[in-house]
Amino acid sequence: MLRKLLIGTALATSFAFSAHAADVKEVQMLHWWTSGGEAAALNVLKQDLAKEGYAWKDVPVAGGGGDAAMTALKAMVAAGNYPTASQMLGYTVLDYAAAGVMGDLTETAKKEGWDKSVPAALQKFSVYDGKWVAAPVNVHSVNWLWINKAVMDKIGGTEPKTFDDFVALLDKAKAAGVIPLALGGQNWQEATMFDSVVLSTGGPEFYKKAMNDLDEESLKSDTMKKSFDNLAKLVTYVDPNFSGRDWNLATAMVIKGDALVQVMGDWAKGEFHAANKTPGTDFLCYRFPGTDGSVIYNSDMFGMFNVPDDRKAAQVALATATLSKSFQSAFNVVKGSVPARTDVPDTDFDACGKKGIADLKAANEGGKLFGSLAQGYGAPPAVANAYKDVISKFVHGQIKTSDEAVTELVKAIDDAK
Amino acid sequence: MSTVAETQIKLTPEHDARPGATVRSRLQDLLPKIVLAPSFAATIIFVYGFILWTIYLSFTNSKTFPSYDITGARAYQRLWRWTFESDPPSSWYTSITNMGIFGFLYILICLALGLFLAILLDQKIRGEGVLRPIYLYPMALSFIVTGVAWKWFLDPGLGLEQTLHQWGWTSFHFDWIKNKDFVIYTVVIAGVWQASGFIMAMFLAGLRGIDGEIMKAAQIDGATTFQLYRRIVIPLLRPVFLSAFIVLAHLAIKSYDLVVALTSGGPGGSAWLPSNFMYEFTFKRNEMAVGSASAVIMLMTLTAIIVPYLYSELREKPR
Q: Is the pTM of this model over 0.80?
């Protein structure tokens, strides 16, 4: 009986297989930019490619978010069914490159001069073993303050230049009865803010050693303890209801004037734009106090897979279009980020965008462009998430003192390495 | 295998005797198996095959992608170490203690509340046809919907607390969902709200199946209502308890989405269940070996609870 069952099984499954035909003039793209502004920004790229005769095909992702997309990508790659390209973040690109499934765009990169125009810090993630494997789409930076101007005027605040200035400003807001700091109590938001706190407390050198090189001495140093103390100080200025709040709701608090300031990456600007607010008149963008001149970045990349030869032309077209100046400008104006190459004119950008572009250029030249640990550009995901755990436990009280926090941080990072 | 085949020949001897009907009878014999085969194969591969695969992976050093070199039980050693890190709590410690709290309270309260509601509804009251679906319908919602609805309801700035403050009861304070020590109990509340109606329906079906003669006999013997339920009805409902327990236990162990929708993991990850831990480590932290090991431990724990219970319950059938 068992044998018959197995024969039946074999019969039934043989029907399930079907032929698969590859299309040459088609770009298969896995991404999770499906919401209004992002989808519109990506449309520019679709049209650019359509002009060259390439059809655009989205790889469907159930659930829509980045996590779901990465799970889908893992399954596709495991099945040997590579998309032309996929939206990817940081170390994911390098993981896939180490697994030997990424393509090689070095020729295109040479021809287009990406070596010179793309910041070296970004090339760490788009070049693997001397070969270009990904095309960076944008550069986000996380060390920003987003301030409601009306509230700022009401309390008579000025741009804070140091951490102490910032605390004084928050005190003013508190005295005026507004929520000083809008924070979403999710681990990545807390850790993103802590990235800036570390840079502000310890300076660029320290940030690089602790958060990118994961140097143990720096991680357990007094400067790191001071950073945790500063974080604890900031957390006293949030409203009691912050835990678990989504980042865009925290931004909405600043937009509505319920809160004075949010520490968030420049994707927050998209929310201000969606609410028809203009930089300078409705809201202000400052660098996190004490971090002027440095940029903590993360970046969206299009990872290019090792597709069969008949699909390579489409891939090259996609990569070229992605890093073309026109697309870089058009896309990033909408997305709130800045172009991934430093030679794109800033004419179409708003004041914050112009500042972002100038800052990126200066930071790149001055060697002060660092990967955000919270956003997965400082260390591989295992370490980055262990870091987020510690920060979040510190913010929410499972870890009580800064002494304990640095011990836990060293332990967690060691464990995850 | 051979004994099974022989029995089947004995069952259909007349068909084989007629030569013209052999093909047809063979087909008839084969058809149910062909129809069953795909689902059988799917279960073998996608459940049992992948269980074995997960066990295998847990002994490798798989990171982002599965790797097939056995490297020993490092993943289990790490989990074992994390099991005892209670201050500050490791994510694994939080997950398993939460599982204990959630599993225990969820199953217990659902059973108690379900039974209580069923007994009340069984009192031949008017409007039962309306009341029953009202209690039952939460089960028709997905955990995600339940989670989001309760998230808003329990949020101090939006839901219950805010409303009561507006109504004038300003000293009212209920912020469990924001509190690292209490957030897991909000998961229990939402879970119980969703499942207790379904358990009620199960008990109600069981109550309706009880022979009225027994009840009458007991009443004639002078049993009070309490005694009636305590000594006769509840013992007779034993098979329903078994079914309800199994339904609830598997709902409890797989409730990943409820935690995500309701708490997004809770303050500092304080609402994690082992399923959250498993997903987080396998897919977000690229520590597939640790994720697999935690999945194996979940499976073993579940087996250790369910198998003896099933055994003790099903053994008594022949008596």
A: yes
